[in-house]
Amino acid sequence: MKIDGGCHCGYITYEAEIDPERVMICHCTDCQTISGSAFRTFAPTREDTFKLLTGELKIYVKTADSGTKRPQSFCPECGSPIYSSTLGEGPKVHNMRVGTIRQRAALVPRLQIWTRSEQPWLDGLASIGKVEEQTF
Known about the structure:
This protein has 136 residues and is mainly β. It has one helix at 29-35; strands spanning 2-6, 13-17, 24-26, 40-46, 51-54, 58-63, 69-74, 81-84, 93-97, 111-113.
């Protein structure tokens, strides 16, 4: 599936190809901290299908508890996370941040990973009241 998207401020725009059957939710504590939320949703893409259309990404290399180094790409202007990747030789996979993808409503997650770090209140989310837009 061809996707396009960008950061919150519009400095970064991109396009890529993804497999919508591989969209995942990650509950690891790194994703919680970096996203500022309870989890992060991502869609893997091969490096050779990702095309940066505008802007220049800032890269931060995060070392996981396992020792694995993961480059985190984001907008240097507004801080929107765009993707994480891998270091080293060989073809790279970019884990695109679904929140920056214009077609995100069509990208239903198929798998959840790192569920041992999942926030315990997520199971009760359906029972929490809803308001269609901010009224306070």
